[in-house]
Amino acid sequence: MQFVIITGMSGSGKSSAVNVLEDIGYYCVDNMPPELIPKFANICSQSDGKIDKVAFVVDIRGGDLFLKLQDTVKQLQGEGVSLKILFLDSSDDVIVRRYKETRRKHPLDEVSYGNIRKAIETEREILRPIKAQADFYIDTSRSSTAQFKERLYSIFLGNNEFMHIDVQSFGFKFGAMSECDLVFDVRCLPNPFYVPELKNKTGLDKDVYDYVLSFDEAKVLLGKLTDLIDYLIPLYEKEGKSQLVIAFGCTGGKHRSVTFAEAVAEHLRKQGHRIRITHRDINNQ
Fold first, then answer.
1. Which residue in 3, 23, 273, 243 sits closest to 145, CA to CA?
2. Numbers of helices and strands, H then E, in the chain
3. 95-120 tens-digit pLDDT
4. Per-residue pLDDT tens digits for 49-80
């Protein structure tokens, strides 16, 4: 039996996650008081296999009841229950915009006296401990509905005995990546942006890819990075980590970072790792 606890920031997409998990066969319960989860798990265990995948949405809407979530997680883990925690997040600006669009009140609206940014700050502090325990972390700030759905599919429809590896590229000019496990800055390499025939292309184009990796320093750096990543992956797996996020950043997120993300992803695929690759800023101007 598989149990998933969906939690995270209000406005980060938990309702959308529930819809996806329901589509792939999970029995979903929204706004579940943490103390009732073990009892519900017991009911499911007596269903003769009719309910074998369950997802609970547990968040700040539960008020003081939510504070029992960590104790519940420890109890379930102590009982040998197969449990994963999915934490959803978004940037403050995106959450503010979503609340303005929906015209709904934040769950902490009363204690923050209507100040949405104060409510978000307070919620982040309350969620900090459970966020640190999460098996999967998704920042939905820049994700389309299709991208979000694909991400959940890759996590919950794959072979969960092995770690998922997300390889991402980004541009520092659009903001650094948050919540990555490993971030590598490749702005130290020659920039194709200053080559007229390459400026408007990306690292997905062969001539840009070849140009970036044509320099000795790029070849040496790629070799050292893949060696480091190869060394770290078994250590993360040994610690039970379910998801590893590796990000490469350059100035605009189109050339060098994309090239290195593609090169490292291909290296890891050849070794049999499950890879998902995302180029966050490849279409940004």
1. 23
2. 9, 9
3. 999 998 988 899 998 888 889 999 99
4. 788 899 999 999 999 999 999 999 999 988 88
